[in-house]
Amino acid sequence: MMKRAVLACLLSSSLAAMSQQPITWRFDNLSHIGGNAPTVVGAPKLIDTELGKAIHFEGGATAGDALFFDTLPLSGTLPYTWEVIFRPSSAGAKEQRIFHLQQDGSETRRLFETRLVDGKWCLDSFAVNVVPNETAKAAVLLKCDGEHLFPLDRWYAVAAIYDGTTLRSYINGVLQGEADVKLFPLTTGGVSVGTRYNKRDFFTGDMFSARFTSRPLPLNELLKVPAERPTSASKPRP
Question: Quick one: CATH architecture of 20-221?
């Protein structure tokens, strides 16, 4: 009996550890990302960059390039950390949806968005849960000025961290804003990269990677922009 209890405890611990392993998506091809085959909209391009392979998107308000996935990372889990390494372009629109997690049959969603102001950009991390008789919503967007505006055409690592009570957003490990909100675990759904899920507000820029972790990561464990590769083969963004 004791052996069974010990084995059950070990199995439970092992499953818990497995559930906390991060899921990483590398945007280094157009056919198989994070173990998923995307549906391609428009003409996103695989490019060489100083970091390595990445995918370039061109977009506008109602048309552009995007990738859609029939899977929903972070489903069934709270809290979470969601990270993206990308390069916003100075050729982009004023408001863009970069990465969208959408629950089936609901307005429940998570998004990374950008706002372009005076030739720079700031981050909007948006989350909303719509359940019967209760709606929880958090838009972590500070006033886009001063220390929260960043140069365009450069690589950044952004993160949204939800610890169970507060959603916080970061750029390169620096806090950009926070909001108290009661979120619920995502169930089933899909992902759009390069646009809002309903194909609006397309992104212009480059996508390098994303990571999804079912726990709030400490700041020293967040993704960082990789060091540039010293190679003459790197090509500039189109």
Answer: Sandwich (2.60)
Interior angle at CA 69, CA 65 and CA 75, nearest 5? 135
- Strand ranges (DSSP E) for 92-219? 95-103, 109-117, 120-131, 134-140, 150-151, 156-162, 166-171, 174-180, 189-193, 205-213
3-state class of 154 per DSSP? coil
Of 218, 112, 126, the residue nearest 167 (C-alpha): 126
Is residue 184 within 8 A of residue 167, CB to CB? The reply is no
172 CB-side CA count, 13 A: 12
The domain locations on the chain are 20-221
Which H helix or E strand runs over 53?
strand 52-57
Q: Are 106 and 72 in contact (CB under 8 A)?
A: no
pTM for the predicted model, two decimal places? 0.86
Biggest CA–CA distance in the chain, Å, is: 69
The pLDDT tens digits along the chain (238 residues) read: 444 443 333 333 333 334 568 999 999 999 999 999 999 999 999 999 999 999 999 999 899 999 999 999 999 999 999 999 999 999 999 999 999 999 999 889 999 999 999 999 999 998 888 876 776 666 666 567 788 999 999 999 999 999 999 999 999 999 999 888 888 899 999 999 999 999 999 999 999 999 999 999 999 999 999 998 765 444 444 4
Query: Peptide bond before 79: cis, by omega within 30 degrees of 0?
Result: yes
Give the Cα separation of 177 and 90 in Å (integer). Answer: 23
